[in-house]
Design a protein that fits this description.
The complex is a heterodimer of chains A (304) and B (296). Chain A is mostly helical and 304 residues long. In chain A, 72% of the residues lie in helices and 1% in strands. Chain A has a two-stranded antiparallel ribbon. The chains are: A mainly alpha (304), B mainly alpha (296). Chain B: It is a multi-pass membrane protein.
Chain lengths: 304, 296
């Protein structure tokens, strides 16, 4: 393309260019400039000086991080809570979608769905409030346990470190179970109905059809989502842990992002916090690339 | 119709029962908190409230809304939700439109630039430093600008736009409309269902966020949001200090409520708008989610 043609095209597309231009600036400022901040991880960043005038320290912060017992604690908590979320949280939406699909009374089905989506739309702050209320010494769980004589005195759920991971896992399931079924229900609708007819002719019952037709029908979706969530195990976030933890449960609640928050912003060690953040991003990218490769290899489906 | 076998019947009963249990487990916490928030605070202390208030009163709500920060928090939350949603949806749709135009000169690189940010980001500290560097600390704009566009939403709107026949744009172009007018007058109205879905997602995101207030605006009482105020009174220490603070101002007032009942009322205040909005937009978001899920 010669230059006069290019100018002509640019002029013809001036409105499109005007429409996108502010957002390219936005993208650079809010999404790419922070990437530039990764440099801080290799410097001894002191506030007040421009970033190119800071002292370079190489991998000092990474070394320090790998020698910090708190870092391993945060890593352990992240991995454990991720895996618990995967083991207990991943199969449930599939089961719920299968069961919902078997409900033939449309208005009952719709009611169940509407109610099950509801918690997805409230904030973790609200969920933390509800969880605190339900699990409080006078809350409903303690009342039930006392009524059926499993315990004599109320359990202080929120103050017991050994319950924390379960509380996080199950409140997450409670919040997102219904919502996570949407994608499976969508996959179920694309299954060929002739398969069901054929199975009926062969004398298969409802349960049999669910296991032998519906479940295999959504298997590709299941596998893709499973691989995706494995790629995301380090990106557990920190909101639920931050909001549900108490002074007594800190040791089991601190995840990588909370570690970054505490050490990076809380104590003003910006370079150290950035180093931890860079480490997390690198692990996350490696997991993602691996998950993508694995998905392509096993299912022929590429996500990125 | 063929007759149901015993196996099918057992399965059916079991299934319906399970769904009812699920419904109860989902709804109970909300109904319980609602009941406590509407119950006399000193009667609540005696325990035994389930899902019905025993001594009905609105005092918890009146007291909550009387705290000086709360009306401000309501205002700021509503403002950020309305402005943030409007700005966010418009920006997202515009980006989606330009990226979707096959003839756009920089289509590929621009799309690439957005997609990359789905996988790499600066992280907590660099983001924090940027916000500080830009002077957005304790500034209302910090609620709107940093999260303006999410690439995921761009993809969802773009894939919807792909289904609009290009003839419509061409005929408008022949009539002399410019690209912006085509977007505004033709494409955007045709995208109403997906725009409604994305609006809901963005609005809920704004309404529910508390962490940006915690990080960036906690020193400015006039800029805090409802979720942040709830978060503050949820941590016990903060709640009692707040109660102390108000009882120092007026000893008679806080005697009317307990921190517990106050928390429950606040939880309901923060949840209520979502309960009102979401059944109406449900049919849109399921459709929108399905598009998004299939495309990405």
């Amino acid at each position: 393309m010669n230059s006069s043609k290019l100018y002509k095209k640019l002029w013809r597309q001036r409105y499109l260019i005007l429409m996108i231009f502010p957002f390219i600036i936005w993208l650079i400022v809010f999404r790419y400039v922070p990437l530039w901040g990764w440099i801080m991880a290799f410097q001894d960043y002191k506030p007040g000086k421009p970033i190119w005038n800071q002292e370079w320290v190489g991998f000092k912060w990474f070394v320090e991080m790998f020698q910090d017992p708190d870092f391993y604690k945060a890593m352990r908590n992240t991995l454990i809570m991720s895996f618990m979320g995967l083991v207990f949280g991943f199969p449930l939406p599939i089961i719920l979608a299968l069961l919902l699909n078997e409900i033939k009374n449309i208005s009952f089905k719709r009611t169940v769905q509407t109610i099950s989506y509801l918690p997805h739309f409230v904030s973790w702050v609200v969920v933390a409030s509800l969880v605190n209320e339900i699990l409080s010494p006078s809350g409903v769980i303690n009342q039930i346990l006392q009524k059926i004589h499993l315990i004599n005195y109320p359990i202080m759920f929120m103050a017991e470190p050994r319950y924390f991971w379960w509380i996080v896992t199950f409140s997450d399931i409670w919040k997102e179970l219904g919502w996570n079924t949407i994608i499976y229900l969508a996959a179920i609708t694309s299954i060929n109905p002739e398969l069901y007819e054929a199975a009926t002719v062969d004398g298969a019952g409802r349960f049999r059809k669910m296991i032998s037709i519906t479940l295999p029908g959504i298997m590709p979706t299941v596998i893709v989502l499973l691989i995706l969530s494995i790629g995301n195990i380090i990106n557990i976030g920190f909101e639920k842990q931050f909001l549900l933890r108490t002074a007594a449960t800190r040791d089991v609640a601190d995840v990588i992002d909370l570690y970054i928050l505490t050490y990076g912003i809380g104590t003003g060690r910006y370079s150290f916090g950035t180093a931890a953040g860079v480490f997390k991003s690198v692990v996350s990218l490696v997991l993602l690339v691996f998950a993508n490769w694995f998905s392509k290899k096993t299912t022929g489906y590429r996500m990125v | 119709m063929k007759r149901k076998t015993t196996g099918d019947l057992v399965f059916e009963v079991f299934n319906y029962l399970l769904m009812m249990i699920l419904t109860v487990v989902t709804l109970y916490p909300f109904l319980h908190v609602l009941a406590v928030s509407l119950n006399d605070p000193y009667d609540t202390v005696k325990g035994g409230i389930t899902i019905f208030p025993r001594k009905f009163t609105l005092v918890n709500y009146i007291e909550t809304l009387n705290y000086p920060q709360i009306p401000w928090a309501v205002l700021i939350t509503v403002l950020r939700t309305v402005i943030g949603t409007f700005a966010g949806v418009l920006s997202t749709a515009m980006v989606a439109y330009v990226i979707n135009r096959k003839d756009f000169i920089a289509r590929k690189p621009v799309a690439m630039m957005f997609i990359i940010t789905m996988y790499v980001g600066g992280g907590l500290i660099p983001d924090y430093m940027l916000i500080r560097g830009l002077g957005l600390m304790n500034n209302f704009l910090v609620y709107i600008l940093p999260g303006l566009i999410s690439p995921f939403n761009v993809i969802v709107i773009k894939s919807y736009m792909e289904g609009i026949p290009p003839d419509l744009e061409e005929s408008a172009m022949i009539d002399g409309a410019n690209d912006f007018l085509i977007f505004w007058k033709i494409i955007l109205p045709l995208c109403a269902p997906v725009v409604a879905t994305i609006s809901l997602f963005i609005a809920v995101g704004h309404w529910n966020s508390w962490f940006d207030t915690y990080l960036y605006c906690s020193n400015e009482p006039r800029l805090t949001t409802l979720q942040y105020e709830l978060q503050k009174i949820l941590s016990n220490a903060a709640a009692s200090s707040q109660i102390d603070y108000y009882s120092n101002l007026d000893p008679n007032r806080t005697m009317k409520v307990t921190p517990h009942s106050l928390r429950m009322a606040m939880t309901i205040i923060v949840t209520l708008p979502i309960l009102f909005v979401y059944p109406f937009v449900q049919k849109y978001f399921i459709h929108g989610m399905t598009i998004g899920a299939i495309k990405s």
